[in-house]
Structures are given as structure tokens and as C-alpha cells.
TrEMBL record:
The chain crosses the membrane at residues 20-43. It comes from Cucumis melo var. makuwa. GO terms for molecular function: O-acetyltransferase activity. This is Protein trichome birefringence-like 19. Residues 86-140 form the Trichome birefringence-like N-terminal domain. GO terms for cellular component: Golgi apparatus; membrane. Belongs to the PC-esterase family. TBL subfamily. Its main location: membrane. It comes from the Eukaryota. InterPro entries: TBL, TBL_C, TBL_N. Keywords: Membrane, Signal-anchor, Transmembrane, Transmembrane helix. The lineage of its organism: Eukaryota, Viridiplantae, Streptophyta, Embryophyta, Tracheophyta.
């Protein structure tokens, strides 16, 4: 009887003045609100990646670029799994599932490869070093998609700042993009240290700005010895970053040379100078101060407001001697991560970079600058097989050229850097949104 009484008092039949319809409408609205709230929170990365590319694809474009748009969505690179957060830095090189698959480019198909990186042209007998792919722990990294990259770079400008290794990266990227388009050289001069190219169909400008040490430096007449002005900007590149949307800085191998360190115009010490009246400060002191000054130049710039990437240290792989003592790199397969680890100088240089990056990142956040870490060190440490060795040099008579275990063959392992970069570009919207939420939360806590 009690159950019957309760049912009578809460009768939901439609004949009861529309109460049933009203309550169902309320419940339906609540359910819809719940769905609309939880789905974006559950899958923000996928939503943003698709929205980002959809927005860029709906903008006016040339017929040349439109022909390649279907592959952006048919490639599978925008699946939910490929958009999930992923630590790119840690993983292993694994054999390609299809070892006979065509390479993204070859030394015959791309004109951008300099001869000292053109391992296949100059007789490297093995091609196995080209048949590996990087698999980060816990996720899959999509291979580079030139159509996606160029769409994301539409109406943008990207400058790569650094030394020979940075130029190595730029040549790799040009070759990867050559499947769609070659750029036009729009460099302001013939100086090979400062180059600028334009992808006309996308209104995308890419530049290479040369610097050996990121700060002002001067090579002494003795050769191979540098004066490093640790507190002074290298204006050769800092004066040219205005208007760029993206900047990637890097430096490393040049710091192994003997150096005299200057601050406030005075010698404060050195690295490998072996002079009794000059304090030996070591390589890491100069490395730290150089990155600190480079980041200062960027964060104090009034004309550059773009996103800055630090590409981490690229290790060399000389074995059985130094570069000038007969050392070489003759391995034909990658290391396994479980069998080796960064140590010694490589680890110390990497950690120094990381510390200065985190310091600059905190400072940049206060000023509204975005700094990002393109962490390639571990992946490249595992690739002793990817250097030119003796196969990347011009065969010029009896000229004695050292074995190159510093730069990277093209095509080769360095192509993975563009895979990393594209993944990070696609994640940028979510990363920025997360930072805004964190900043707002921290501001609220500080105001309490």
C-alpha cells in the first residue's frame, strides 16, 4: 500500500498537466549538458588538432596546395591515438615494418644535400641505416607529413639559428618538403651563412641564421681558438629575428674548441688554453653562459614575439680516437636504449642546456613568451650508424679529410627531427591552453 501511495503522489503520466514532458525535458537537457561538458574534457587534443587543420584548410589557398589536401586527412596522422600526449625523447629505434618502402627522398631527388652529407653519392656501401624508425615509449610517432607541415606554416616564418648541425636540419627539412614543393631562394645576399627561402604556394618563409656559439665570438688568427664574449649578443642573428613566428636555436660542437671567455670586455677565464695566468673555467661554464645570454636576447626582444624551440645537443660518435687522431664511426646499426646511456661530457652538456632552458622558460612565462624543448639528444645518441664517416667528403686527390662522426647523412636519422617538430606544432594549441589554465590557477592562488 505504501508503494502504491508513493506512486500515486508522483504520477508522471502525460495526462497529468504535462508534468511528464516537463521532467523528461529537464532530464534530457541535463544529460546533453553532461555530454557536451565531458566530451571536450576527455578529448581536447583530438578536437583541437582537427579544428586547427580544418580552419587552415578553409582559408583561401592556391590550386597547387589544394591538390595535396586530401592526403592530410587520409594519412591517418590525425587519429585519436596519434594525438595523445607522448614523450618523444625516450624510446628506441626499431626496424621499419616495410623495409622496401620508398624513402621520403633520395640523394638523386633532392638538390639541397651538400656533398659532405651525401653518404650514398660517395659510396657508402650499406643502406641499412635508412631502414629504422623512432618509437617513443608508450605511443607511436607519425612519420613526417609535408602537407600537414606546410598547411600549419601557411603565412608563417620560421628561422633556424645555429651552426653546421642546424644547417644539416634545414637541408633535411627542405628535402622532406620537396615532395610537395621546392622553395625559391630569396636570400638578401650570397652569404651561405644567412639564407632565406620562400614556399610560394603557402607564403611560408624559412631561414637559416648562422652562429657558432650563440653569443658574440671571434676566431683568433692561430686557428681553432676563439674569443667568446659571454655577455654580448651575437647580433648577426639576434638583429634578424624580428617578424618570425618560430625560432629554433641550437649549439654544441663548437664549444669543444679552445676558448677565452670575456665578460664586460675582460678575460675572465678559458677552456683548454693552458696558460698560467688565465683561470681554466672549463667547457660547461661557457656553454651555460652562452645559452643564458641567447635566451636573454630573445626574451628582451621588442620585435620578436614568436614561439622559441631549443633543439638539444647532438652527440658525436668517434670511436678508437678523437676526430683528429684517427677516430671513426663504422657501426651499421643503432644502439638499444637498454645497452647504453648518456654519460660524461655528453650528459653534462645536455643537462646544462636543460637547466638553462627551464630557467628561461620560467622567465619567459612571466613575459608572455613561449619556449619549447625539442629533445632529440637520446634519440641521436642511439644512432652511431648515421654519420657520414669517410663517405660524405669530396674525393679530392690526397687531401687528408677527417672522418665525420658529427654531422648526419642525408637521408638519415636526422630526418626524425622534423617528425618531432611537426608533432609538437600539432600539439601547440593544447599546450598553450593548458599553460593559460595553469597560469590563471597560479594567479588565483597568489591572490588569496
Amino acid at each position: 500500500m505504501m508503494l502504491q501511495s508513493q506512486a500515486t503522489s508522483t504520477d508522471l503520466r502525460p495526462c497529468k498537466n504535462g508534468q511528464y514532458r516537463t521532467l523528461m525535458a529537464i532530464l534530457g537537457g541535463a544529460l546533453a549538458l553532461l555530454i557536451l561538458t565531458t566530451i571536450p574534457l576527455s578529448f581536447p587534443l583530438l578536437n583541437y588538432s582537427l579544428l586547427l587543420l580544418k580552419t587552415s584548410l578553409e582559408s583561401p589557398a592556391s590550386a597547387a596546395s589544394a591538390a595535396f589536401r586530401p592526403q592530410i586527412f587520409s594519412s591517418g596522422n590525425l587519429s585519436l591515438l596519434s594525438a595523445l600526449p607522448c614523450d618523444l625523447a625516450i624510446g628506441d629505434w626499431i626496424p621499419n615494418s616495410n623495409p622496401k618502402a620508398a624513402l621520403p627522398y633520395t640523394n638523386d631527388s633532392c638538390w639541397a644535400i651538400h656533398d659532405h652529407l651525401n653518404c650514398l653519392k660517395y659510396g657508402r656501401p650499406d643502406g641499412g641505416f635508412l631502414r629504422w624508425r623512432w618509437r617513443p615509449e608508450g605511443c607511436e610517432l607519425p612519420s613526417f607529413n609535408p602537407a600537414q607541415f606546410l598547411e600549419l606554416m601557411r603565412h608563417k616564418a620560421f628561422a633556424f639559428v645555429g651552426d653546421n648541425i642546424a644547417r644539416n636540419h634545414v637541408q633535411s627539412l627542405i628535402c622532406l618538403l620537396s615532395k610537395l614543393e621546392y622553395p625559391i631562394d630569396v636570400s638578401p645576399s650570397r652569404d651561405e651563412h644567412f639564407k632565406k627561402w620562400k614556399y610560394m604556394s603557402y607564403n611560408f618563409t624559412m631561414a637559416f641564421l648562422w652562429t657558432t656559439h650563440l653569443v658574440k665570438s671571434k676566431e683568433l688568427t692561430t686557428g681553432g681558438v676563439f674569443n667568446l664574449y659571454l655577455d654580448e649578443y651575437d647580433e648577426a642573428w639576434t638583429s634578424q629575428i624580428a617578424g618570425f613566428d618560430y625560432l629554433m636555436i641550437s649549439s654544441g660542437q663548437w664549444f669543444l674548441h679552445p676558448m677565452f671567455y670575456y665578460e664586460n670586455g675582460q678575460v675572465i677565464g678559458c677552456h683548454d688554453c693552458f696558460l698560467n695566468n688565465v683561470t681554466e673555467l672549463g667547457i660547461y661554464h661557457g656553454y651555460r653562459k652562452a645559452f643564458r645570454t641567447a635566451f636573454k636576447a630573445i626574451l628582451n626582444s621588442e620585435s620578436y614575439k614568436g614561439i622559441t624551440y631549443l633543439r638539444t645537443f647532438s652527440p658525436s660518435h668517434f670511436e678508437n680516437g678523437l676526430w683528429n687522431q684517427g677516430g671513426n664511426c663504422l657501426r651499421t646499426e643503432p644502439f638499444k636504449s637498454k645497452d647504453t646511456a648518456l654519460e660524461g661530457m655528453n650528459l653534462e652538456l645536455y643537462m646544462t642546456q636543460m637547466e638553462e632552458f627551464r630557467r628561461a622558460e620560467r622567465e619567459g612565462r612571466k613575459k608572455g613568451f613561449k619556449l619549447r624543448l625539442l629533445d632529440t639528444t637520446q634519440a641521436m645518441w642511439l644512432r652511431p650508424d648515421g654519420h657520414p664517416s669517410k663517405y660524405g667528403h669530396w674525393p679530392q686527390g690526397n687531401e687528408n679529410l677527417y672522418n665525420d662522426c658529427i654531422h648526419w647523412c642525408l637521408p638519415g636519422p636526422i630526418d626524425i627531427w622534423s617528425d618531432f617538430l611537426l608533432h609538437m606544432l600539432k600539439m601547440e594549441g593544447i599546450r598553450s591552453a593548458q599553460e593559460r589554465v595553469q597560469f590563471a590557477h597560479q594567479t588565483e592562488l597568489n591572490q588569496r
